[in-house]
Amino acid sequence: MEHKHKYDAQGKQLCCTPQEEKIYTDANAKKLLEKHHNNDGHNHEHSDDDGHNHGSTDKSTFQMFLPAIISFVLLMIAIAFDNWLPQSWFTGWVRIIWYAIAYLPVGFPVIKEAFESIRKSDVFSEFLLMSIATIGAFAIGEYPEGVAVMLFYAVGEVFQTLAVTRAKANIKTLLDQRPDEVTILENNQAKTIKAETASIGNIIQLKPGEKLGLDGELLSETASFNTAALTGESKPDTKTKGETVLAGMINLTTVAQVKVTTAYTDSKLSKILELVQNATAQKAPTELFIRKFAKIYTPIVVLLAVLITIIPYFFVSDYVFSQWLYRALVFLVISCPCALVISIPLGYFGGIGAASKNGILFKGSNFLDAIANIQNLVMDKTGTMTEGVFKVQEVVFDNDFNQAEILQMVNALESHSTHPVATAIHEYVGKINNEIKLENTEEIAGHGLRAIINGKELLVGNFKLMNKFSIPYGIDPNSIVYTVIAVAYDKKFVGYITIADSIKEDAQLTIDKLKELGVKTTMLSGDKTTVVKFVAEKLNINNAFGDLLPEDKVNKVKEIKTKNETVAFVGDGVNDAPVVALSDVGIAMGGLGSDATIETADVVIQDDRPSKIPMAINIGKQTKKIVWQNIALAFGVKAIVLVLGAGGLATMWEAVFADVGVALLAILNAVRIQRMKFY
Prior knowledge:
The chain is 47% helix and 17% strand.
């Protein structure tokens, strides 16, 4: 796959710095720089075989450190000959050549990268800065410092590569839980094959404790699975015959049989892994700003370094060229923006990885930033804060009607609907009586169902349906808390059925956590207003509105946005697409089984637990905090040492700390997020 760079109108590369590209390539993580949007307005491409070696992806840690080790040994011997064990022969050209040989293992690759960057029109790269600084040190006779600066820079680059490698490996280990082999049944004989060679239609035999290698349909009557690889939760999930089971799930009980329904590379786990790895293509504003800033900042510092060398000539009476050149070189080393260009993307990738570990998928680092600043959370009710599983609470029919007979009719009519209410009625009434003949069956959107039975009209729906057909009823629907299904037969009001949905066990914890984070909550639902208000009051939600159509939800969100406040909407991500599009962050619940949900939402909660919402906000806040800590650390230390360097009070050694030392500290801080607990 090709890596497509992004360029501005003048042809300047915008998408990644040469050093960032090199480090991610060395870490075998170049995919993290891929997949810019196709409509980004450019056709520039840069393939992996562009004529220069970005670095081997097969090197061991020792091989990566070997040039630095050779350089370090030669440098220490030279320093010993200079200071502790003087040698008469270690002078003149012999001494210069020795230091040059010590410099080459770490210096040559950097100088080569500097030329390659210039060839790609990126003149002011980190590699050029380090090359000028160290060659300049040789030019003024500061050989030990020239070697030392490049040595520490090379060591820092290896550590950065290792940090990226580890971050990528952590994500892959967390998510890619598929086994390499699966056991399939052929002619009732068990046969072990490579997972990627399994075909759709194969029957996998899954023993207790084994992981499923591909998505499929459960053929066994029941089986319990650990879904931690997909949802971050180890709580057993019991599946029944015909239900979908996904790659990465672990069978917990008896031997189960699964029919493969999806190719190995198309499994849900593959898509989730690809989504997480490609999330870095959506850059956070902070990350984009730092990259643009580095493009301006670096050439300015080079110009200042030139001025530091030349300007004093006109104002200082005892001007010594080598002294001011040395100060300028120190200034150049300090100016290298390594700490920023690597640690900041790594910080965001760490945040995306930490979220993935907990069953939360962010589609880009920009959404980590956005969710950290959310002021309002607007939520759907059914399936978000409630289980979405309705149960009949009571049946209130007029005594003039045969309750059992009417319920059988209602059950037969509701069999034409897939609404959860229909399921609740079916579970309450039982088996459908096929002797009941329905004629002219129709669904009236937003109202309910209508059919003719025995030549008489049966209406089942809300009270708006009763009003539509002018059916008189002597009750106040608003006095009933639960969802109400009104029934009329032969132009007469029969009565009503109440149905209720249970609140999720962690719904209260979710609202409490959101209030702690300072987030205001609003519930919007198409369900009955009394039901919505009842749930909202029980959970202490700030605002609640019921009886809403999709366009009503849009208008409510617009009202909040007119206050210049940020809004996140959480729902199913498909039916509420207009609201998701309008909100600053769209969050989908229960995205585990829905490709459409993953495509629609900005953030996907892989299980149905609403408590993951405040966790996602917290991860966003912690990621943003770490990124700004790194920015403050890098700029703070560099500013101090830049001033000291320009004034001649800082040597190359302080400059090395300001560059490589700060970069390593920032990287360690960035990877720290993957070890944090967000509960």
